[in-house]
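Model it.
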Amino acid sequence: MAQTSILGRMGQLVRANINSILDSAEDPEKMLNQMVIDYTNNIREAEEAVAQTIGNLRLLEDDEKEAKEAAGEWGSKALAASKKADEYRAAGNTADADRFDNLAKIALKRQISFEEQVRTFDEQIATQTVLVEKLKDGLNGMRAKREELVQKKDELIARSKMATAQRQVTETMKSVNVMDPTSEVARFEEKVRHEEAQARGMAEVASSSLDEQFASLDDATDDLEVEARLAALKGGGG
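Modeled.
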């Protein structure tokens, strides 16, 4: 039946592994929202089918009620005709008695016909009642599954957003590691050390030049003293 096929289709959707469906989704949030919309629409379709089934059941119940009433009416007519026939027969009026007995038989046949309808309606109503109860249970299950789907959707969307944020942080950290600022600082520090060493070297060079100048000055002083002593020696000897 259409009703059971609808519920079966819903059951397949509920049993589907949502996570595997989302593996190939470019936009998981959009897909999940669409799934909820589709499932809600399918529930609405199922509700209409169940309502139609319930409506058919109510029609059967109405028909059964009318058949019971008709069977009762024809039973009453059969009884009235039978009594009338008995009255005519007691009065010796056989012709009218037979005529009313025949009317009673006709009424009884109609009563039997409606009673058979009642039995048929009873069987149909019993079958439809079981089906309606199953459909109601299935529909309630679908509504509960929809709530689960909404909760699952919210959970997966939150997880997806967290995963995206985590991936972005990881990618940012990778780019930072590729361009490690500490290595740049270390290289600059090495450059500064070389400059400092060069400055010390230049200072030492400058200091060495002064020492040599002072040393040459001392040598000149020594030479003057030597010359003076030499002159004194010569003067004393003369």
